Recover the amino acids of this structure.
């Protein structure tokens, strides 16, 4: 099976074919040793030994600890990859992305109103978690469409706090 | 000595105190909230008492429940740890009024030093140098602005009742003052129930150097040298070491004497810390923490003294059995705070269940932790998971040991700040001890975590081999014709491959 793997900004094409493991078309001598109960494995690349532990496996996402270093890995097999390509995927959003709570917490203050134009870096919502206030700021320019939370409200991770209007059609047409 | 000690705290510090008490033959009582019923400190203690629901205000901050727990278990002393009620004079007083010993200074001392304005006034009187600033809390943003303009920007807004970076804001320019003032007040009000904020001059490139002091009820006060805690993010310490890479013996003596003077001025009993800002040989009193510090282990390693056991001894009325001249500093110790915060994502708090934890071992390595596999890290409490502390004959040896120990430390299940510490160790200025409390502002690249190309490629391979293994494990009948006898090298060793 062939896999498309992303680690941070890097992309790899890894193919497992019987005995052989190919990384970007190049054969790699690699062995994974695993015990009966431990989640810890020993990955050998040549004779280089790496302590390996898989901490999370959810959908395409994996979190691996390799010699004390943490890696967030995204992995799709060839078949899934092509199916997604054909069905178009979900990329290319129209307006600025909605503001989501990066962690569970308490909304301390909402600093903008619906209809307000915001600039990059402008404070939008202050969320308190672990007794510290975190100010969430605008990444790009935009106009707030809806404010979905209010001060004093508890929010979950990834809950949408407010969203933005799609840019006007005219703005997308260049001169 | 006491018969039974109640520890009014949780996490790594509760574990640390229980260990110290056990070694002295003192029985221990843990207290806990509903979500902490299986926390390490509960499992380790001789007795445990449920206080209430998860929020601190309904459990660890409930003075009535704590005293009830002490009464029910027959404890004769209470150790507050750090944070929570450790610096609340009413708690110390309530413990004493209940006929128990509070392991710490008197309520009067806590009160005097806890009010930062009052503390500065007292220190000024005792001849301890202080940072220029107004002594009284500012009543309004306008008043704070006037004070700031008089001493010149940048200034620091600080909570009168504060500590730990809460209710604290740096203000670079007049225009930013009013918003920062409101935020500081809100944070202070939420964290301490007191929104008073004062203004002081912001030093450009100081180091955070603090002196550990220890006093008994017989009038003896000694200092145990300094800790440098300059590596901070938003006023939260991340790395601490002893001794400081820069202090000369003369400077150490001068700061030590000032700290002893500060402690003597409030008749200090127990372990305390006098924090200073240090810049070019000058030092200024910042505040005094009337409790055990998170970073106390580095002092223990270079002095050979057990600070928690000394806290218990002096609380029981014993006299210090050594003099200032007998305090010897040897070697170098460094501590990394390991928190459930994600450095790749602006240090946002992370939650989850701790997986198969792997802790560093071997010479010169100490782990003071409050987590175990299966423990769920939530958002109710401080993000500190544990402290990795190393000791070596000198700073370069300690740094090499820290690197080695960090390579061995694996905490699966949540994001931690371990990648930050690994990255920090690569920084030349850190290696050379060229530190200031602005280190992370001056070295923003430390907050950009990047793996090396080889390791990244290895991670990609590892993910694929684990994926193949998982797919085979979930497909018991192997498809015909795939060559059952022809096992690939990674498959042959795999498990549960041959089920």
């Amino acid at each position: 099976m062939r896999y498309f793997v992303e680690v941070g900004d890097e992309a790899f094409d890894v193919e497992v074919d019987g005995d052989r493991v190919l990384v970007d078309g190049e054969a790699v001598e690699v062995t994974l040793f695993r015990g009966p109960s431990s989640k810890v494995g020993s990955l050998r690349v040549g004779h280089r030994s790496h302590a390996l532990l898989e901490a999370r496996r959810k959908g395409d996402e994996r979190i691996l600890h390799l010699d004390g270093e943490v890696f967030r890995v995204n992995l799709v097999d060839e078949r899934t990859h092509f199916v997604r390509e054909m069905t178009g995927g979900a990329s290319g959003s129209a307006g600025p992305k909605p503001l989501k709570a990066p962690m569970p917490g308490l909304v301390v203050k909402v600093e903008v109103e619906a209809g307000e134009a915001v600039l990059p870096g402008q404070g939008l919502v202050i969320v308190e978690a672990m007794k510290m206030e975190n100010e969430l700021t605008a990444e790009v320019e935009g106009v707030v469409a809806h404010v979905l939370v209010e001060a004093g409200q508890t929010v979950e991770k990834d809950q949408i706090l407010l969203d933005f209007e799609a840019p006007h059609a005219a703005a997308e047409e260049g001169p | 000595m006491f018969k039974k000690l109640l520890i009014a705290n949780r996490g790594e510090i509760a574990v640390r105190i229980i260990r110290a008490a056990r070694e002295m033959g003192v029985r221990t009582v843990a207290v806990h909230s509903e979500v902490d019923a299986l926390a390490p400190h509960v499992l380790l203690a001789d007795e445990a008492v449920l206080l209430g629901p998860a929020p601190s205000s309904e459990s660890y901050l409930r003075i009535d429940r704590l005293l009830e727990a002490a009464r029910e278990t027959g404890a004769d002393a209470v150790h507050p740890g750090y944070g929570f009620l450790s610096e609340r004079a009413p708690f110390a007083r309530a413990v004493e009024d209940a006929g128990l010993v509070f392991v710490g200074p008197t309520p009067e001392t806590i009160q005097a030093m806890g009010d930062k304005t009052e503390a500065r006034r007292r220190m000024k009187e005792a001849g301890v140098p202080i940072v220029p600033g107004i002594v009284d809390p500012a009543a309004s943003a306008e008043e704070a602005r006037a004070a700031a303009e008089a001493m010149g920007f940048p200034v620091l807004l600080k909570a009168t009742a504060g500590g730990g970076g809460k209710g604290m804001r740096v203000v670079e320019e007049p225009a930013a003052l009013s918003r920062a003032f409101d935020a500081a007040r809100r944070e202070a009000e939420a964290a301490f129930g007191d929104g008073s904020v004062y203004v002081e001059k912001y030093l450009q490139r100081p180091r955070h150097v603090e002196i550990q002091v220890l006093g008994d009820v017989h009038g003896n006060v000694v200092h145990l040298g300094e800790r440098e805690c300059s590596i901070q993010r938003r006023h939260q310490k991340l790395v601490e070491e002893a001794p400081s890479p820069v202090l000369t013996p003369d400077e150490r003596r001068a700061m030590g004497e000032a700290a002893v003077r500060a402690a003597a001025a409030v008749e200090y009993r127990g372990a305390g810390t006098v924090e200073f800002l240090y810049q070019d040989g000058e030092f200024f009193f910042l505040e005094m923490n009337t409790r055990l510090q998170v970073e106390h282990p580095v002092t223990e390693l270079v002095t050979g003294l057990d600070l928690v056991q000394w806290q218990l001894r002096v609380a029981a009325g014993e006299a210090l059995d050594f003099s200032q001249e007998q305090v010897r500093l040897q070697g170098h110790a460094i501590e990394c705070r390991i928190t459930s915060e994600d450095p790749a994502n602006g240090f946002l708090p992370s939650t989850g269940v701790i997986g198969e934890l792997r802790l560093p071992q071997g010479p010169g390595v100490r782990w003071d932790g409050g987590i175990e596999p299966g423990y769920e890290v939530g958002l109710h409490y401080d993000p500190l998971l544990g402290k990795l502390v190393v000791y070596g004959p000198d700073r370069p040896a300690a740094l090499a040991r820290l690197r080695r120990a960090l390579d061995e430390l694996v905490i699966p299940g949540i994001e931690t700040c371990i990648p930050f510490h690994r990255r920090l160790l690569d920084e030349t200025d850190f290696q050379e001890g060229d530190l200031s409390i602005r280190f992370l502002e001056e070295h923003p690249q430390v907050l950009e975590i990047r793996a090396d190309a080889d390791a990244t490629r290895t991670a990609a391979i590892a993910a694929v081999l684990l994926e193949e293994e998982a797919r085979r494990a979930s497909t018991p009948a192997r498809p015909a014709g795939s060559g059952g006898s022809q096992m690939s090298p990674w498959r042959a060793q795999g498990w549960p491959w041959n089920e």
User: Anything to note?
Assistant: The first helix of chain B runs from residue 11 to 23. Residues 477-499 of chain B have pLDDT under 50 and may be disordered. Residues 207-447 of chain B form a domain with the D-amino Acid Aminotransferase; Chain A, domain 1 fold (CATH 3.30.470.20). Chain B touches chain A through 62 residues (CB under 8 Å).
